[in-house]
Amino acid sequence: MKLGLDMVLRPGRSTKPERWHNMTVFVNRNGLVVAAALLAFWSGCFLQPADAQTNPRDLTALVALGKAWSGSSALSTWAGTDPCGDHWTGITCDGNGNVTQLELTYRNISGTIPSTIGDLSALESLDLSNNRELSGKLPAELGNLTNLKSLSIQQCSISGPIPVELSNLLQLEFLALMDNQMVGTIPGQIGRLSKLYWFDISQNQIGGSLPVSSGKDGVGLDNLTSIKHFHFNNNTMTGDIPPEIFGLSKLIHLLLDSNGFSGTIPNNNSNSILIMRLNDNRLSGPIPSVWTNMTSLVEIHISNNQLTGTFPDLSNLTNLRLLDASNNVLFDPQPIPTFLATGTTNLLTLSMAKCNLEGSIPSGLFSSPFLQKVDLSDNNLNDTLTFGSIGKNLQYVDLEDNKIDDINTAAANGVNIQTILLRGNPVCTSTLLKVEQFCVADSGSTTSYPQLPFCGGKDCSGGQVLHSRLCICGDAMICQMRLNSPPFQIVNQDIIGQLTKELAHLFSENASQTENLPRVPNQVFLVTDQLSIESANITGNSRMNFTLAIFPPTGRDWRTQEVDYIVTFFYNNSVHLPKTQGPYSILGYTYPIFGLPSNKSSLGTGALVGIIVAAAFVVLLLAFVGVYAFRQKRRAEKAEVITRPFASWGTKSGKDDGAAPKLMGARYFSLNDLKKATGNFAERNVIGVGGYGKVYKGTLPDGEVVAVKRAQEGSMQGKEEFKNEIELLSRVHHKNLVSLLGFCYDKDHNEQMLIYQFMPSGTLRDHLLGRLRDPLTWQTRLNIALGSAMGLSYLHEQASPPVIHRDIKSTNILLDDKLVARVADFGLSKTAPPDGSKGHVSTQVKGTLGYLDPEYYMTQQLTEKSDVYSFGVVLLELLTARAPIENNKYIVREVRETLEKGGVAALRAMLDGHIKDCPSNELEDFLQLALHCVEEASKNRPTMDEVQKELERICGHSLSSSVGVGAGGLAKDLYGDDFLGRSRETQFQYSGGFTQLN
User: Fold this and answer.
1) What does 51-116 look like in DSSP terms, one character per residue?
2) Which CATH superfamily is domain 667-757 in?
3) Mean pLDDT over all residues of the chain?
4) Above 90 in pLDDT, residue 933?
5) For the chain, does the N or the C end have fewer beta carbons within 10 angstroms?
6) What dotted CATH number matches 764-954?
7) Where's it found, cell-wise (predicted)?
């Protein structure tokens, strides 16, 4: 076992005498004492103590933080009275003992941010990102940190508004609050932050309009004279886009997509904007004519709006790499714009699907040497398709659902394009057999990477990672990342190679000098060969998720401090990617598997004296050490169980055969821990019963309440589901997914358990059956539907690799104390194929009767659309409060037949009595969405991303964070699955849920 001594010795300074009680003497398997332990102990005893170095005010504040976040094992080093001198995790101090940096990303911190954080008055950087259990509101006292330059609290569960007190942080340059649950509006006073260059509040529930100085506060976003980045996408903002925004002289990225903005696009010129994302709003009117002179533009996203008129001539935009105007059905009928017809643009991506285009397709359209993808589907283009000169990079042409009635087959046979789609055109029903190759479904191979296994399918063992280009194995850290606006929508080796070089350049010494970054301890400089992109896929909203492996320098492991530097660097976007890649976000990361040795301080004079003195006493201590070593050996054996609980998972010989789960952060609990937490698994603490076993309510020593899912006693049933759920939940984190806190695997007692967040409000099914005293209102049901959709959309679109849940049902949607929905139970989940929703997984059919996708059942081909079908059934449950199959009647068929007979008016009789007065327009839209989800053919169903967007629209773009209906008492089947209360039918076998099909 490889262990290290976390003690730093300095001249004239002692570790406190009481540390002897907590110090571990390390032993090998023969019980021999490592000499370094003795030396360190005796040097600690004989060196004289020194006064603490940390500013007392900062010490008090940090102690308060430690108490508030006491559940985090990552803060185990927060002990003693000198955070600066004792090297507390995530703490950096200046020479006067003032804390200047607090960097605690991905540390499993839970709780809220206490107001005492405002006492760290010298703080310049605060980063608490990727702590999903960090909740509550941002304290107003953050406004006291007047030296703060960087504030990053991304991917947590922060609620409440943006505190207006943040406007006091006049030194602030970087403000990132992405992917939380924040509500309210943007305070106009933020405009006081004249040094702010990055403002990211994307993926929240921020509403209202964009404040400008002409408003009531007299100050607004147009006063941010240093701003370069507005990342406001995926919120609930409304109103017009103020013209003043386009007057910001340094603004380069304007990301306003997926909101509710309306009105016309301001006809204002900007010479600085590179990327403009206005898609997925309610914008109307024409494309501004002034855009013809905005020559800096690299990307224009205006899809999914209600724009009218015709396209202006954008031929002057020589930097333009992406133009996406799809799904603007109100455009005037018009031919393909002339500036596109000649093939002289520098576009990589052209998307004008459903834009009311008509006429023939100019043969010169495809001749640009840069063009990679063209999507002109669902228009009225007609006549004969003739391919003229073809650009060398063109890989994808989608002309589906047009009126093309002929094709110049002679020219087509010479075309070297990976994908040409012509389905839905008259030519595909003609006798031109030579065009059949173009009338098939899209394989999706151009939107994912890799298309073939790396290195001939070579694999690595021992948790190591395969370098995709060098074909060697190593101990890499893994970063899950996203390009928020790449100009390309095709992923190939050239794109991946260029992105890898540019990511390496971020960490180069040249980039550091160009951006005037100060040298810091443990600063990391990378070369291209240290980076390997393992997988990538283009998402439905034109972003790219990818997995990046970063390998240490040749010949050694990463050091902990170096990994922390890389993560902080990424989170703070210290250096920007070139305009050819757009802005990026880091979604999460995983430490290397093997040892991360801390940098060791060299021994000073005092330490050497201590060693000499210690040596004189070694003989006298041998007897004592022998006893102590024996005890420590026992502890070490116990520690091995904790650090390698699955060492004998696969075989009886005690050797790991590779079948053990690959853990990415789950906490180990011993059997005794869980016996104490659950009162020795007392029946009074049973809160659910399912095919897997029982679920108990438990209380940990720190007071945290958990749910313990225990396999049937004396059995190892469900071993694969157990392994699957640990692996999956330890690497996916989202506010609408139930978090896995840990696990217990005790082979000696045949015990396997999973420990989750406790959801006090039970299952969605509990509420629909009226088992809890307060009924769900219509608005609450909309919120639950939207929250569940967000969790599933994350699994399908943002998890890397994507995940298919395979068992979506109302008993697997749990509700917290505010009735926020969280998707649970991942025992049956499957990793989606590399080509995302376009492919399938051939597998045995498993699922729950009534929710099961009929196409999956018939073909055994599982896709993400199978989850969409199951979710559609849940939507019908929300409407009717009926089980999917009740009295031998299937809810999908019942709803359809009722609609056919009497329309929506007749359906109201089927509605749950608590929502019969819901607004007709919302009911009809919700019903239409549900029926769209349960279409027989998967190709006719929407994606979960599309479902989420439609629910956001139905909800009025307002997901309430404070639904107060009260949970009442807890039902006995909380976390359980047999909600119909029937005996399980013998023709079906189970795997963790009600009526599971094998």
Assistant:
1) ---S-HHHHHHHHHHHHHTTT-GGGTT--SS-TTTTT-TTEEE-TTS-EEEEE-TTS--EEE--GG
2) Phosphorylase Kinase; domain 1 (3.30.200.20)
3) 79
4) yes
5) C
6) 1.10.510.10
7) Cell membrane
Q: What are the residue numbers of the active site?
A: 807
Residue ranges per domain, the chain? 17-52+603-643, 333-443, 447-590, 667-757, 764-954
pTM of the model: 0.61
Q: Within 13 Å of residue 392, how many CA atoms lie on the same side as its CB? A: 2
Task: Tell how strand 181-182 and strand 275-277 pair up.
Answer: unpaired
Hey, which of 209-218, 518-527, 657-666 has the most confident mean pLDDT?
Answer: 209-218
Fold of 333-443: 3.80.10
- Tokens 């020219």 locate to 411
Q: Do 934 and 873 touch, CB atoms closer than 8 A?
A: yes
Cα 673 from Cα 696, distance rounded (Å): 13
Q: Given CA atoms 297, 301, 307, 312 in this order, what sign does their dihedral have? A: positive
Task: Give the integer Cα–Cα distance in Å for 847 and 808.
Answer: 8
Query: Given the structure tokens 């005293």, which residue do they identify?
Result: 773
| Rounded Cα gap, residues 951 and 966, in angstroms | 24
Q: What whole-number distance in Å separates Cα of residue 277 and Cα of residue 542?
A: 10
Residue 704: DSSP 8-state? -
Q: Where are the alpha helices (DSSP H) in 644-689?
A: 671-677
CA distance 789 to 947: 7
Contacts 24+ apart (CB under 8 A), 440-446: 441/939, 442/398, 442/838, 443/419, 443/835, 443/838, 443/839, 444/835, 444/836, 444/837, 444/838, 444/839, 445/418, 445/419, 445/835, 445/838, 446/373, 446/395, 446/396, 446/418, 446/419, 446/490, 446/491, 446/492
Give the residue ranges of the annotated binding site: 709
Please report where in the chains the tokens 């333009």 appear, as a residue.
Answer: 320
Residue 687 near residue 677 (C-beta atoms within 8 A): no
Q: What residues contact residue 328 under an 8 Å CB cut-off, 6+ apart?
A: 302, 303, 304, 305, 306, 307, 354, 355, 356
